[in-house]
Amino acid sequence: MTRPAASGTRTLNRFLVLRWVGAVGALLIGVGALGAGALPVVGNPYVHFPAGSLLSRMLQTSSAVVFIGVALMVVAWVLMAPFVGVGTKARESVSMSLLKRTFAAWTAPILITAPIFTQDIYSYLAQGSIVAQGMDPYAAGPVQLLGAEHHLARSVPFIWAESPSPYGPVALGIAAAISRLTDDAIVWGVLAHRLTALIGLIAAGWAVARLARRCHVNPPAAVWLGLLNPLTLLHLIGGIHNEAILLGFMLVGMEVGLRGVDRLRRGENRDGWLLVLAAGALISCAGLVKVTGFLALGFVGMSLAKYRHERGVHPFLAIVGAAAVKLACLVITTAVVSALTGIGLGWITGQGGAATIRSWMSVTTDVGVVFGWFGMLLNLGDHTDAVLSITRAIGVLVAAAFILRMLFATFRGTIHPVGGLGVGTFVLVILFPVVHPWYMLWAILPLAAWANRSEFRIAVVAYSAAMSFFVLPRGLSLPPATVLTIYVAALLGAVAVLALGWLIIRRSRAMA
Length: 512
Fold this sequence. Notes:
Elements (H helix, E strand, L loop, with lengths): L3 H33 L15 H5 L2 H21 L16 H16 L8 H13 L9 H5 L11 H4 L7 H14 L3 H29 L4 H8 L3 H9 L4 H23 L3 H19 L7 H16 L4 H27 L21 H15 L6 H29 L4 H15 L9 H8 L5 H14 L12 H32 L1
Helix pairs in contact: 1-3, 1-4, 3-21, 4-11, 5-8, 8-9, 8-15, 9-10, 9-12, 10-19, 12-13, 12-14, 13-14, 13-15, 14-15, 14-17, 14-18, 16-17, 17-18, 18-19
């Protein structure tokens, strides 16, 4: 019989091997991004990095290097499942400290490389400069406000170049602070935004671990599925999307709010109400990054309403009272943030800019495009835009109805607030007018802390692994022949690297 100590050592060693595999993958991503990443249009500073100039002339090779790194990270992440208590062959869970060190090892090379998988960071830099200069980011696009020759405006993606900002005052306030701090330097601006995203994800990880305990889910499994997820690392740190800030505020707000309700139940009224109000402010800040963050206000509010109903308050009055508390938090937080940043309420009407994108991942967009195609096939004319407005509106209404259902289920106690938020957000993403691969993280992170079924985890792993390869490193489309060359080279390279690694491990075991 194997002694427990020996078994634990073997488990630890296997996990550490996987951590090294993922770290090598992250290093390859970081190096490859210097040539294949989302580089600025003019004045590319990354050519001065070691190997940056060479790699920038070898787009196909450097893109393949990135995808080889992605493959190593994905394989390492998937194979870690048994070591965090997931699956029928689950071993004893590794400690949270090991997962934290793994997160650090996998993010460090990505933190200091060029932007990757998207050009959106240049919109953030330009919008931050607009706010820092005292202009209204909701009045026009970066090209009109900064000028067509401005070094930040020239790197903004074409679709956003003449579009007002779709982001709220918290996101723009942070971008403006970074603009002032870095004097609009591209490299320092990218690094500052990356650091902000990292802080947001660390905060989200803290919340996920505690929400998992609250929902009786193994915390290492939740952190592995949500925070170590390659989709999270590649797009929220590599791509520097604002979702990192949103998730940090939202999930910390959820934990703080539920902790406040727990204290109210224990009779600690002063501390309980302070936490409930703080949660309202934190979640409002999440919504002031992107409006989807406001959803969590409803679920914390319903948890509060449920507590008040348990104390004998009429259900209608309990819900209205909780809604009034959260609405007050929202109004006060918005007023304070607007005063601090000098940004008005233009974000309320500036949310429709992204709707011009036709995203195939959006069910409602796909249905609208198909019906528009049938109309043209029947010689009825091209009414695709009109049909899209109808199908997308129906999708939003259906999602809103489902979220309302989840809210009342939370009030009745038939679903945990964290589960209600995750399921409601999942339906919203599915029916959203525009969907990008990383949008599903809005639902994956809260669901990782609540859903304990293997079917859910298998679906998340399959989706995340596939979507990690979906977007090209530059974040732009390339000729089909070039794309095929990149993927074939990456596949062959990944197979060769993994096979070599397997042989080295086998030989080292044979010699031990």
